[in-house]
Inverse folding.
């Protein structure tokens, strides 16, 4: 004769099975989502503001060479976006290795003072601040003699009528 165990046996209801399945699904989802959250939470830092090296004055119609350099703190490759200040638009070149010196050329077609702007952009689209360089085409020297003559004409408007007429003042 076999003695029966007087302990009540657990009764599993359909509701308990569903709850167990829901808990397992939640745990499984967390196992999959937590690595994704931790990898996307890492911030991508922008590159440093570029350094621009090149001529700050020259002649219209002459090609000039400019060098740019920027480093990305994450070591990402870097592209450079250049605005030459003469309505030719923003032109992006690259990507290049972080810290690599990049050379580009430009020719201005009209006299004037231009502000060259360059920014660096890494491969994840994080951008640096703009770096600027003022370029004057053509370079003009201040002639102190002309300034002196202008001052004389302003101070003595009725003096030197012939000289005033010849110089166009």
């Amino acid at each position: 004769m076999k003695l029966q165990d007087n302990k009540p046996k657990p009764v599993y209801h359909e509701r308990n099975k569903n709850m167990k399945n829901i808990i397992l699904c939640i745990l499984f989802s967390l196992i999959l989502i937590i690595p994704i959250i931790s990898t996307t939470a890492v911030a991508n830092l922008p590159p440093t503001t570029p350094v621009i090296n090149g001529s700050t004055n020259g002649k219209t119609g002459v090609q000039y060479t400019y060098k740019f350099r920027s480093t990305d703190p994450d070591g990402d490759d870097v592209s450079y976006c250049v605005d030459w200040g003469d309505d030719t638009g923003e032109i992006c070149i690259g990507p290049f290795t972080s810290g690599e010196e990049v050379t580009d050329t430009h020719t201005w077609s009209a006299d004037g003072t231009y502000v060259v702007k360059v920014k660096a952009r890494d491969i994840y689209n994080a951008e640096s601040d703009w770096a600027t360089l003022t370029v004057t085409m053509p370079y003009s020297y201040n002639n102190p003699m002309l300034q002196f003559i202008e001052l004389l004409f302003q101070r003595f408007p009725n003096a030197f009528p012939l000289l005033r007429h010849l110089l166009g003042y």
Notes: The CA atoms of residues 54 and 66 lie 5 Å apart.
